[in-house]
Specification:
Mean pLDDT: 93
Shape: globular
Strand order of the largest sheet: 1-2-3-4-5-6-7-8
CATH architecture: Alpha-Beta Barrel
Helix content: 25-40%
Number of domains: 1
Low-confidence stretches: none
Number of strands: 10
Structural class: alpha/beta
Strand content: 15-25%
Number of helices: 7
């Protein structure tokens, strides 16, 4: 298996984001969803992205949004400092393509799965998204739920672009989860962690991030 990547999502403090970047994570996500407890206002994002870029330029900077409207495009522009747009709502493949063209940004698309059959949507999204993120559907929440996806749903998964696994991923279960995926013949690009490495929403536990990185490096 290729070396797993680690994305830490839901950072809200510039200095902490820089510290997480320096640990060696591959991507950092910031939430631009107002009803999220990890929401970071547009006027604070640039400072955070500058801190991440200064700490470790190769860390991918990902802005997470839900069903963005055209009126929000200015706030989603890469001039703020992010490099990727992660769509976490009910966006269609057509909407993903529109945003990709309008913003000039690579798109990552999260699929929140209610049931195994939801994976039938995958192929259409792989034509417009650079990466896919898979996590469980939870009512009224678009991520950061701490809930895990039933891995059996992924048996036979065939996806033509790299994919992240999200949902309740932390140092206590990452190794077991990856072992189960390998047993199913699957190889994720990486794992996405948020609530499992927090002291409170938006405030990360640096030791937990270190522990998770250590575990991933041995897989």
């Amino acid at each position: 298996m290729a070396q797993l990547k680690l994305k830490i999502c839901g950072l809200t403090i510039a200095s902490q984001a820089a510290a997480v970047a320096q640990l060696g994570v591959d991507a950092i996500g910031v939430i631009a969803v107002k009803n999220s407890p990890r929401f970071l206002a547009a006027n604070k994002r640039t400072e955070l992205w500058k801190a991440v870029a200064a700490a470790k330029p190769q860390v991918q900077r990902v802005l997470v949004v839900v069903n963005p409207s055209d009126s929000e495009l200015d706030q989603l522009s890469p001039k703020a400092g992010h490099q990727y747009l992660q769509l976490h709502g009910e966006e269609t493949p057509e909407r993903c393509y529109e945003l990709k063209q309008q913003l000039g940004l690579p798109i990552w698309k999260a699929l929140r799965l209610r049931q195994k059959n939801d994976l039938e949507q995958l192929q259409a999204f792989t034509e417009v998204a650079e990466k896919i993120l898979l996590e469980p559907w939870v009512p009224d929440q678009h991520g950061g739920t701490g809930k895990s996806l039933p891995l059996e749903w992924l048996r036979g998964l065939n996806v033509s672009c790299p994919w992240w696994l999200a949902g309740g991923m932390g140092s206590n279960n990452a190794a077991k989860t990856i072992d189960e995926l390998v047993a199913l013949g699957l190889e994720p690009y990486g794992i996405d962690a948020s609530s499992s490495v927090e002291d409170s929403p938006g405030i990360k536990n640096i030791n937990e991030v270190k522990n998770l990185l250590t575990i991933i490096s041995t897989i």
